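Hi P.,

Sorry for the delay on this. The queue was packed all week, but I finally got your sequence through. Input first:
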Amino acid sequence: MIQSDVTPSLENGYIRNIWEYAVDNHTPTSDEIELDITAYVNFVDDNIDIIDGESYLYGGDDGAPGYSSSYVILFAKQPKAALRG
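Then the structure:
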């Protein structure tokens, strides 16, 4: 779709972010795309119940140096199938 210069209508903000990141970082001579990992993980986290999984958020921004990261842990009964879903 990127190479054909087609822009899909995307309602979900995370999916829209993934698309825009791919378009912004696409090299016309390449068949590869870059994935916005943050938007992807946020999308999976928001929709984890659809794939019969669970997610846990660890950490947070408390302002102290070295303690400003968060981690999302995703669990699914069938992880490969869930990520393809």
